TrEMBL record:
GO terms for biological process: cilium assembly; protein localization to ciliary transition zone; smoothened signaling pathway. It comes from the Eukaryota. Residues 112-221 form the Tectonic-1-3 N-terminal domain. Pfam families: DUF1619_N, TCTN_DUF1619. Belongs to the tectonic family. The keyword tRNA-binding does not apply. This is TECT2 protein. Keywords: Cilium biogenesis/degradation, Glycoprotein, Signal. Residues 241-383, 398-581 form the Tectonic-1-3 domain. PANTHER family: TECTONIC FAMILY MEMBER, TECTONIC-2. One of its GO terms (cellular component) is MKS complex. Part of the tectonic-like complex (also named B9 complex). The keyword Zinc does not apply.
């Protein structure tokens, strides 16, 4: 055993059986273990014996009662050496004087490495970290004990160091607190030494290392802030300066105004802050057991100017439960528990400039019973108030992130169109998948699974897949802005379609049955947009072009041992990508900038075109008069050096000196 406790079991009936513990010794002459008899007790020196009797088995526990800490100076009842206990024990099971069984235990127990002794009251003098390292052995973390792999630990005996001598900690943590630095003349740490290194290197002792002073002088401690709560403004007289797009809306208690929203993982987060000028429409699944009420509707919000606005709440009752109750786990009975809960909440923020003028909330209530699954819906919409005080509301003419992209079918009498992606449900099959509109600014990827048989005709499969993908795009044009009118064709951009490659080759017959090439299984929708202006400080985003293309795959039937009358699956996907481009094309690079890149200040550390920048009016580092004086002095010195380096100057100087 290597620990202070060991367990064993005595099998069979323990009725009339006496258990005893004997501390055995070795005969010095024969070197054999001395035999024990049944006259022992349940305690031997520092060892105790406990027996838990059972019907067919008894648990036998041997415990060491002595202290296993290493001895400190002037301490008793401790371990003088790391190998604290080396003893041999025998556990005997006797009925009367007859020995039924015996257990031999060889105990080799080392002292604990944790320190539990009395802490000295003498104050530890911490050296100034600017002039010398804080500790010469940073890996020495345990007082009064040897730290494994810490070869600079003075508490480690030579015998213990042999166990980890080849695996010692290196670097500063291992005790090398003054490593040679690159600027040292005797240091060869740099792979490529420059030619001028011997002239500029430093001759210094390692005690005067540049690593001294690399420490954090912590004078303050981090304080905990409640979640979704920011510190109050402490500056007197400082007013709230208004909201910017994306800022969280604050309440009267200086907390975030929260509404349930979907996280990146797709789950609903109940205490998600509402961002200014960002619309959303989310659905969250819940049941009666996990239902939680949201933020109370009597909470007032900060308008952006320091004033507080009360919510205008209207309560309505849901009559058609089928739109919200998605499934029922059991039939309703008279004993089923039901509760009046919130089915949907519709928030309308009326804003102007950087402030919120009004908040209207419509709450839809209904009865939710135990065993039912509720699909809650939360919508947030920001409407802009005109500055003419006419009270007329209008939506920002440009697209905002999260708004549905407008589509139109100009070839039909009813010009209303749609641009959707899949929203799979259940098993993810295309037959049960529903549609959800494409939201502006949100790249997305969706898909569904199509069931295909082994005898499927390839031409029919291509047509079926193409029909499924085209059902997502029932439009010929996309609205440039959110307020595009159907009567004005200039408000729309035509969809550029790159149709899939038509392949009339049917290779699903013969030896290649179950393989179809050129299946257009991926629909790619790319939209190019730009910020073409701003409305009351909010960017006006406009769609410039839309392209639709297809990616083909080779479909192969997948089956197990028996392929007859089995069905394989073909996943088809639709991806949406929004690409932002500048509203104006960038200025093309000149031929000089393309060929002579060494003079490009944006791609080089040395910028020769700005050599005389300090002499220009654009330099504001110091007064212009000082810059001019320094520049003239420098020019005079350069001119003087040029004159003195000329050969005729030496002749004139020699002739004048004679």
């Amino acid at each position: 055993m290597s620990g202070p406790r060991v367990n064993s079991f005595f099998l069979g009936s323990s009725s009339g059986v006496n258990f005893s513990l004997v501390l055995s010794s070795i005969d010095e002459e024969t070197g054999k273990l001395q035999l024990a008899n049944c006259s022992g007790s349940k305690r031997a020196d520092d060892w105790n014996l406990d027996v838990t009797r059972g019907m067919d088995a008894s648990k036998v526990t041997v415990t060491l009662t002595r202290n296993l800490q290493l001895c400190l100076p002037n301490a008793t009842d401790c371990c003088a050496t790391p190998l604290c206990v080396v003893e041999t024990l025998q556990v005997l099971a006797c009925r009367g004087s007859v020995m039924l069984a015996h257990l031999l235990i060889q105990a080799e127990i080392y002292a604990n490495s944790s320190f539990t002794g009395n802490v000295s009251e003498n104050a530890t003098i911490i050296p100034n970290q600017v002039f010398q390292p804080l500790g010469s052995c940073p890996c020495n973390l345990t007082a009064g004990a040897c730290d494994i792999r810490c070869c600079c630990d003075l508490e480690c005996t030579p015998d213990l160091k042999q166990l980890f001598n080849g695996s010692c900690f290196t670097g500063v943590f291992g005790g090398d607190v003054n490593p040679p630095f690159d600027q040292l003349c005797s240091s060869q740490s740099m792979e490529y030494l420059p030619d001028w290194f011997p002239f500029l290197c430093v001759q210094s002792s390692l005690n005067n290392t540049p690593f001294l002073g690399y420490f954090y002088d912590g004078s303050t401690s981090a304080h905990s802030v409640a979640p979704f709560k920011i510190p109050l403004q402490t500056s007197p007289g400082k007013l709230f300066t208004g909201y910017r797009q994306g800022d969280p809306i604050m309440t009267e208690e200086n907390e975030y105004f929260t509404i349930p929203q979907q996280s990146m993982a797709g789950q609903c987060v109940g205490n998600a802050p509402v961002a200014y000028l960002q619309n959303f429409d989310v659905r969250c699944l819940t049941n009666l057991a996990s239902y939680k009420e949201g933020l109370p509707h009597d909470v007032r919000i900060n308008s952006g100017t320091g004033d507080f606005i009360r919510q205008n709440v209207i309560y309505k009752t849901i009559t058609d439960m089928g739109k919200f109750i998605t499934e029922s786990e059991s039939h309703h009975t008279a004993e089923v528990l039901c509760q009046n809960v919130t089915f949907a909440e519709d928030y309308t923020f009326i804003w102007k400039d950087k402030n919120i003028e009004q908040l209207n909330v419509t709450v839809f209530l209904g009865s939710l019973c135990n065993g039912e699954v509720l699909t809650q819906r939360f919508t947030v919409k920001f409407l802009c108030l005109k500055s003419t005080n006419a009270g007329e509301l209008f939506v920002n003419p440009g697209y905002q992130v999260g708004q549905p992209v407008r589509a139109a079918n100009m070839n039909a009498s009813d010009t209303f169109g749609s641009l959707n992606i899949w929203q799979p449900a259940g098993r993810g099959l295309c037959t049960s998948a529903t549609y959800t509109p494409v939201l502006f600014g949100l790249d997305s990827l969706s898909g569904c699974i199509l069931e295909v048989g082994i005898n499927e005709d390839c031409s029919f499969l291509r047509g079926n897949v193409t029909e499924k993908l085209n059902s997502l795009i029932e439009a010929t044009h996309i609205g440039k802005r959110d307020n595009s009118t159907y009567s004005d064709l200039n408000d729309w951009v035509e969809i550029i379609r790159l149709d899939p490659v038509n392949s009339d080759t049917n290779v699903s017959t013969g030896n290649l049955k179950g393989i179809c090439p050129d299946i257009p299984a991926n629909l790619n929708i790319r939209m190019i947009f730009a910020d073409v202006g701003a409305v009351q400080g909010i960017p006006l985003r406009q769609i410039l072009a839309v392209q639709i293309s297809y990616s083909t795959v080779i479909w192969q039937f997948q089956c197990g041992l028996n392929c007859e009358n089995s069905i394989s699956f073909l996943p088809i996907t639709a991806s949406v990508q929004f690409i932002k481009v500048p509203a104006q094309p960038p200025i093309p690079m000149t031929r000089f900038q393309i060929n002579y890149t060494e003079f490009d200040c944006n791609r080089n550390d040395v910028c020769w075109p700005q050599l005389f920048y300090p002499l220009t009016r654009f330099y504001t580092g110091e007064p212009y008069s000082q810059c001019l004086a320094k520049g003239l002095s420098l020019a005079f010195l350069v001119l003087l050096a040029a004159i003195m380096s000329n050969p005729w100057f030496s002749k004139v100087w020699n002739s004048s000196s004679v």
